[in-house]
Amino acid sequence: MNTVVSALLLTILMGMPALLKAHALEPGFLSLAPAGNDSWQVVWRVPQVGGQPMQIDAVLPETCTPRVAPGPMKFDGRAFVSRWLASCTEGLDGGVVAVRGLDATRTDVLVRYSPEPDAEPVVTRLTPDTISFQIAPGGPEGSVLSSYFVLGVEHILEGFDHLLFVFALLLLIPSFKMLIAALTSFTIAHSLTMAGVTLGMFTLPAPPVEAVIALSIVFLATELARPADDQRLTARYPWLVSFSFGLLHGFGFAGALREIGLPEGDVPMALLSFNLGVEAGQIAFVCGVLLCGYVAGLAIRHREGVVQWFEYTGRRLASYGIGGLASFWLVERVAGFWV
């Protein structure tokens, strides 16, 4: 695994500005459901910031009245929520739904739209870079399987804290067999908690979960900084460490899915496809890193001094980079408890 260090260290340094942002566990949420007679039931859920709703507004197509939330939002203990009935005389087909102010945040907004009472809903994710989307005429394209699968892939690939945890495992575990066992344990564990949270069996508040996820990465960074001949806990029991922290990370994965909800009648399919999307994104990340490591290994295999540098100094620098970034997240998230 030493040849992977160079590619991973370069990835950290090049991606530092984006990594500092990480991703929010609780995105905004907009639901549009038909209520009959050209009316639509709108549910608009906004994360709280400093005890107040985040300064973003859902804006419906021009044919709808009202286009934005008509009154003050109510706090439900986790976020601020507004519900209203919108009249859209020309329907929603071809209309543009936007989230005003989203480009000034680090938050995602998940939009769930049902064209007919019994139709399959489609889920769209808006980001600071893409703050609007046009509703496809004739109804949404795609299915619950494809929509939730894509959401799962996007969620893990932009969840830099989760990827950094996997990234650290790649550096810590010496053999490919042990790495597979650790990643499998991580998958099983976060699948269990993600299903439990999504189905309402148990839950934990998001801010402490975010902080402890950062702390789990700090732990792996300290393991990486220890001498290679030291009996590190991760080296002795990789599956146990990854399983334990996987249970915790599952709460993070469930944050997005809990907010958008599961389509009635298709709960198992939506939950399975979202989880498959998360795993597909994770596998793609691991394969990409290993490929970069293999290429880097070919480039330096005949340069003994460079190889030795990456075996010792490179690994230590990687541990400092991972630990420093995770510590930044930890401090930021703990400070957020009182903001």
The major sheet is characterized as: 8 strands, mixed
Instruction: Tell me the number of structural domains.
Output: 2
| Poorly predicted runs of 5 or more residues | 1-7, 10-21
N-to-C order of helices and strands: HHEEEEEEEEEEEHHHHHHHH
Distance between the termini: 42 Å
What is the β-strand count?
Answer: 11
Oligomer: single chain
Which band does the percent of strand residues land in?
15-25%
Number of separate helices: 10
- Gross morphology is elongated
- Secondary-structure class: alpha+beta
> What helical percentage do the residues reach?
40-55%
CA gyration radius, whole angstroms: 22 Å
Short description:
The protein has 339 residues and is an alpha+beta fold.
Keywords summarizing the entry:
339 residues, single chain, 10 helices, disordered N terminus
Layout of helices and strands:
Layout: H1 2-14, H2 16-19, E1 28-36, E2 39-49, E3 52-53, E4 57-59, E5 64-65, E6 74-75, E7 79-88, E8 96-100, E9 109-113, E10 122-126, E11 132-134, H3 144-157, H4 160-172, H5 176-198, H6 206-225, H7 233-236, H8 238-260, H9 267-300, H10 304-335
Parallel strand pairs: 1-9
Antiparallel strand pairs: 1-2, 2-3, 2-7, 4-8, 5-7, 6-7, 8-11, 9-10
Helix pairs in contact: 1-9, 1-10, 3-9, 4-6, 4-9, 4-10, 5-8, 6-8, 6-10
